[in-house]
Amino acid sequence: MFVRRILISILFVIISFCSYGQVVDTISTASPKQELSKAEKDSIINAKLSTPSTIIQDNTKTNNSISQKQTHSPLKASLYSTFVPGLGQIYNRQVWKVPIIYAAEGALLYLAITNYRGAQRFKDEYLLRSNNIVEGRNPEYVNFPDQSIYNLYYAYQKNFELTIVAGAIIYILNIVDAMVYAHLFDFDISPNLSMNLTPYYLPTSFSPNYSPTFGLSMRFNLR
Question: What are the boundaries of each domain within the chain?
Fold first, then answer.
């Protein structure tokens, strides 16, 4: 019995050594696989480390584009239109507005000069009549009463003042227009910023009323 136990123990020791050798062999054979996975891990790590540089480059590109867009100054546009009407519109690349501005200002200037001359003419006539001075009166106004001369003077004077106010309003609108469109110069107006209406048709199989349904679908595209 004792000898049998010794033999059995020796057999277990041999089996354990053999199994340990197999484990060592499997580890040694699996080591190239571990080296391959390590290389893959290194490549993944390098790829991850290289992404921040691309992100930084993208950020610098976006910052450069934003800085380039911000070079169009609303202050410059408003100052240009303040000193020379229409120059701010040229700065905003809206040259077609310049003839409109000068046509309006030219028409108002013509009306202002005409009304001013008429007011001065009837004013002189009224002053001569009020002071009983015959010399210097206009013979065309002989049949006009004094009250009519005064009313005509008042009408021309009022129209002259209105043309001055209208010219000042157009001048101010010229500055405001240049400033507003300079703010909107870099604004992205895309066809995606729109509303789309699409007709739709539902056959009887999809309709709860067992009849074909027609309608319109509204879709907003925002970017």
Answer: 1-71, 74-183, 188-223
Note the helical H segments in 2-145.
Answer: 2-69, 74-83, 87-91, 97-130
Which own/partner pairs from 100-105 qualify as long-range (CB within 8 Å, at least 24 positions apart)?
101/170, 101/174, 104/170, 105/167, 105/170, 105/171
Q: What is the pLDDT of residue 6?
A: 64
* Alpha-carbon span 222 to 194, nearest angstrom: 7
Residue type, 126: Y
Q: Please tell me which of 16-25, 88-97, 126-135 the model is most confident about, judged by mean pLDDT.
A: 88-97
Residue range 167-181: mean pLDDT, rounded: 95
103 close to 207: Cβ distance less than 8 angstroms: no
Higher-confidence position of 132 and 201: 132
Tokens read off for 11: 């057999």
Cα torsion 186, 192, 195, 197 to 10°: value is: 160
CA angle 205, 211, 214 (to 5 degrees): 95
Q: Is the dihedral of CA 69, 73, 78, 81 positive or negative?
A: negative
* pLDDT over 80 at 209, yes or no: no
Q: Which two tokens stand for residue 107?
A: 């028409």
Average pLDDT over residues 19-27: 46
Burial 135-146 (b: 16+ CB within 10 A, else e): eeeeeebeebee
Q: Tell me the chain's radius of gyration from C-alpha atoms.
A: 47
